[in-house]
Design the sequence.
């Protein structure tokens, strides 16, 4: 079980790094094809949703901590605190948006390893201008 927990916590860190580098294929690999995340279903819709919020943003940092992971055979749940800073560019240059909250992830073990089948991020604290979150070319 400790190995499973380590794999999930490592996957969360890899997802955060992929988001910050806008490595959409790197993000995609951690979600099941039929994932339900951020109010959409499926990998393509998930990536489109993320691009709509991060495509026109400058630097971001997804900082994660306080991982609580529960394993039940080939399924798992994780609750993870997140603090995400977004720097505005283009028309939002000089602005920023930061949110703090909790990721609620449901995981399934696949032949490729642990993958997220459902994700939700509940924002508990919001600072700055939400308009910083925008698609590219907006």
Sequence:
């Amino acid at each position: 079980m400790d190995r499973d927990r380590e794999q999930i916590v490592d996957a969360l860190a890899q997802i955060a790094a992929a988001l910050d580098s806008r490595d959409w294929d790197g993000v995609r690999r951690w979600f099941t094809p039929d994932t339900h995340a951020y109010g959409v279903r499926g990998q393509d819709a998930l990536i489109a949703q993320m691009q709509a919020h991060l495509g026109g943003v400058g630097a971001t940092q997804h900082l994660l901590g306080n991982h609580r992971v529960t394993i039940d055979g080939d399924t798992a749940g994780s609750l993870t605190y997140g603090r995400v800073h977004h720097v505005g560019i283009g028309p939002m240059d000089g602005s920023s948006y930061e949110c703090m909250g909790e990721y609620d992830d449901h995981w399934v073990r696949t032949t490729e390893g642990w993958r997220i089948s459902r994700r939700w991020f509940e924002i508990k604290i919001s600072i700055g201008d939400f308009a910083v979150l925008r698609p590219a070319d907006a």
